[in-house]
Amino acid sequence: MLSSAAPSISFPFYNGNHNHNRNLNHNYGIAPPRFVIRCAIASASSPKKKLWKQGEHPGHVSENSSNRRTPIKNIKKKLDRKANLNPWVNTVTEALSESVDVKQWSRALQVFEMLKEQPFYQPKEGTYMKLIVLLGRCGQPKHARHLFDEMIQEGLEPTSQLYTALLAAYCRSNLIDEAFKILNQMKTLPLCQPDVYTFSILMKACVDAARFELVESIYHQMDERSITPNTVTQNTVLAGYGKAGKFQEMEKVLLSMLDSDTCTPDVWTMNTILSLFGNMGDIESMEKWYEKLRNFGIEPETRTFNILIGVYGKNKMYDKMSSVMEYMRKLSFPWTTSTYNNVIEAFSDVGDAKNMEYTFKQMQGEGMRADTKTFCCLIRGYANAGVFHKVASVVELANEMEIHENTSFYNAVLYGCVKAGDLMKMEEVFKKMKQEECRPDAVTYSIMMEAYKKEAMDDKVHDLEQERLKIGVC
């Protein structure tokens, strides 16, 4: 448990610029909050541990390889050959690289077809790997499969890494049965055997899809091949069980990690456990596991402290929230945008506009850039406080600062309109949201439908319900 035996401090914490704070108080009529808190968490941090143990990564450099320098006499020949190459070499390859970097899969495939038509083209494993990974991330597993088959037709030998990339493409699209077919195909090829990466990707897909019946099957297959699950694999399963409410299975995995010599918990394990119990509001279990993992030797990081701040803030435990912030300062952990966002959100939820605004001004005073979540919290906070003219001001400020207006941002503005009882403005914002091609989500429709229900506008509710079903929002 977090103790409370430490020096008292005040919150928010001043940044040392006393003139700045005086000006804020004078201009905005805001007095610094005065609740007193105490501090205690754990000890200083140590270097981060590696997520993958040595020898697990499929990439391996031979001990016999050397870094011999190219003989000087060959340099001129290489430069001459490069100068005589078709100018398309750089143009097309750069266009392909750019398309991959910005995740434009369709354009990347078009450029790749152009590249193959050039006389200098030679098929390379690395090019196919980049394209298959890109197609997987963009939800195009069929195109990835076509490219994989094409690669084999061009004479390139498949590798475990390439098969794993193809398997990952199907996993990302939740086509788990197809992914298992690829796994079975890998098993029949001596040079393409699945490794810990392959099984970890498949395990994550099963957990994300709540197909927990397959998890034990994967563990069994790994055991048959003497492949030990690593910490990343176990963290994935741990998080999946927790999100699904399978806490008995989650604790079983966690205890096995604590007893293991090869798959020990790390700071990601700690963050996962704290988030799961914190989001449930089970502060006692969260603190118990924090202490237990600290005693195991795991050092917290900035994200760990931000998780604690967020949980304490949501549960109105402002003293502990402030204690964690002070402890971060003591250990020289920087307050990040996420740190400030969690504090602002804590005050936003209860409509405490004064403390929320004070924290935001301090955030600006320390040169910390606000992001979309910052403005979402400010908008909701002013709406909860009934200060609706400041909602409009914050929206204008977000526009001036070129803050990314995503679905969450529009949902916050819609929430503000509903709180103000301005359904006409709400409809205008919803229309603008569509014009900006920002896809509404379940929260969007929930906010608007509740507003219409209060006004007994059943026809509007019905229309929104039909629209929601039409675009596939659950």
TrEMBL record:
PANTHER family: OS07G0661900 PROTEIN. Coiled coil: none annotated. This is Pentacotripeptide-repeat region of PRORP domain-containing protein. Keywords: Repeat. Signal peptide: none annotated. It comes from the Eukaryota. Residues 49-72 are annotated as: Disordered. The keyword Chaperone does not apply. It comes from Lactuca virosa. PPR repeats lie at residues 124-158, 159-193, 195-229, 230-265, 266-300, 336-370, 406-440.
